């Protein structure tokens, strides 16, 4: 197994499951299950035991490994600088070994099967991938400055499609030139790679790169931080070298293009940092720049924010596999409660996966009368002059 030489070096101090102030928990799987085996240190111990033949590959072990939401909190707070950056790589290698053994949770198996057969997480026809654009006047890509990549959630999920339309309309109002690929796109592969299914990830990456290059794409703006991360950091190894932006990074420097209303009541907004924009790519400011530029928005911070942010629990494919589940101690529900207790009226998100996870959590936590989940571009649109 790759990275096995670092497994014995973890002394399980527990910093990996905490934010930097040590006052709460910030590991989604440990928060949900409260067993040390579900913490990053516990996974290191289990993988070492598996390699040493002290335990066997079992469905229980697979559940523990695939419950990791790849949020990166362990990498951020590990006390061991010599190998902290390899923690998630080791866990991914462990998942790859479990895939090779055939021991995977049913949800993971079904998710990867849909990816293999259809090129998307929903098992839908590729011909329907651009149907979301019927709700907005969006041109096919034909030499515009940017390719807008909506991803699977933006293309197929009902809520995701609403967000994709909202972002596209705001980008147009900002004067940003973009188009979409009507055919040829596949899933970006970020979460497939995080699950350890390397050959499938490479296949998805190569298909997308071929489609992008055939269309003459040079710059990409993504709806999801997950796509932003993998296009920026993983695709160059396969020859896919593009200038890649998350949509908030473009909007942060385009807010002067908008004229806002000044007759709406002020709102208290807190921002939920997406893991793949924040900890994985160190951008904590673009979305906050956008929100601060909207008249009437007062930005407040939750205790767990920026590098200490609590993940919604949807990463690593968990939005689709539901290995983490939706228990009372789920990360999404804890995050919704934290936002409400901070005094926010609106929990702002910049990721369609986060929106889905947190909207459901607000409902199950009974916070619908106190807290709304709104995507950043939706907050802009609601306050623009007609």
Question: Describe it for me?
Answer:
It is a single chain. The protein is of the alpha/beta class and 386 residues long. It has 17 helices and eight strands. The chain has three domains: 4-104, no CATH class; 126-251, 3-Layer(aba) Sandwich (Rossmann fold); 257-382, Rossmann fold (3-Layer(aba) Sandwich). 41% of the residues lie in helices and 8% in strands. Strand 3 (219-222), helix 11 (225-233) and strand 4 form a beta-alpha-beta unit. It is globular and about 65 Å long.
**How many domain regions?**
3
Q: Could you name the CATH topology of the largest domain?
A: Rossmann fold
Strand content: 5-15%
Order of helices and strands: HHHHHHEHHEHHEHEHEHEHHEHEH
**Contiguous runs where pLDDT drops below 50 for at least 5 residues:** none
Strand order of the largest sheet: 2-1-3-4
Write down the overall mean pLDDT.
Answer: 93
Main beta sheet: 4 strands, parallel
- Label the CATH architecture of the largest domain: 3-Layer(aba) Sandwich
Give the termini distance in whole angstroms. Answer: 58 Å
Overall geometry comes to: globular
Helix content: 40-55%
The whole-angstrom Rg is 20 Å
Structural class: alpha/beta
Number of helices: 17
Q: Care to count the β-strands?
A: 8
CATH class category name of the largest domain: Alpha Beta
């Amino acid at each position: 197994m790759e990275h096995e030489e670092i497994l014995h070096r973890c002394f399980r101090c527990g910093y990996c499951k905490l934010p930097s102030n040590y006052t709460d928990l910030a590991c989604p799987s440990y928060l949900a299950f409260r067993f040390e085996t579900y913490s990053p240190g516990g996974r290191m111990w289990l993988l070492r035991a598996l390699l040493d033949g002290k335990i066997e590959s079992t469905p229980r072990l697979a559940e523990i490994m695939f419950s990791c939401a790849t949020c990166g909190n362990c990498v951020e707070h590990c006390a061991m600088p010599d190998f902290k950056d390899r923690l998630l790589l080791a866990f991914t290698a462990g998942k790859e070994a479990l895939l090779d053994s055939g021991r995977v949770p049913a949800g993971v198996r079904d998710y990867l099967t849909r990816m293999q057969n259809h090129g998307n997480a929903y098992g839908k026809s590729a011909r329907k991938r651009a149907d979301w654009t019927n709700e907005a006047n969006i041109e096919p890509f034909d030499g515009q400055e940017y390719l807008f990549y909506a991803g699977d959630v933006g293309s197929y999920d009902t809520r995701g499609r609403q967000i994709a339309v909202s972002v596209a309309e705001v980008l147009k109002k900002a004067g940003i030139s973009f188009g979409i690929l009507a055919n040829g796109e596949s899933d970006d592969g970020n979460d497939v790679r995080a699950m350890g299914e390397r050959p499938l990830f490479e296949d998805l990456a190569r298909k997308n790169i071929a489609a992008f290059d055939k269309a003459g794409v040079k710059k990409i703006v993504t709806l999801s931080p997950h796509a932003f991360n993998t296009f920026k950091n993983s695709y160059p190894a396969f020859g896919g070298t593009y200038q890649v932006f998350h949509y908030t990074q473009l909007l942060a420097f385009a807010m002067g293009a908008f004229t806002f209303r000044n007759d709406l009541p002020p709102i208290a907004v807190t921002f939920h940092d997406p893991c793949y924009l924040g900890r994985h790519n160190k951008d904590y400011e673009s979305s906050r720049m956008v929100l601060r530029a909207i008249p009437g928005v007062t930005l407040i911070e939750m205790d767990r924010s920026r590098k200490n942010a609590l993940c919604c629990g949807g990463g690593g494919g968990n939005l689709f596999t539901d290995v983490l589940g939706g228990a009372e101690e789920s990360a999404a529900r804890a995050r919704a409660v934290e936002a409400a207790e901070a005094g926010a009226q609106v929990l702002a998100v910049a990721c369609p996966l986060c929106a889905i996870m947190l909207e459901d959590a607000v409902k199950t936590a009974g916070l619908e009368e106190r807290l709304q989940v709104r995507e950043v571009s939706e907050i802009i649109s609601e306050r623009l002059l007609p």
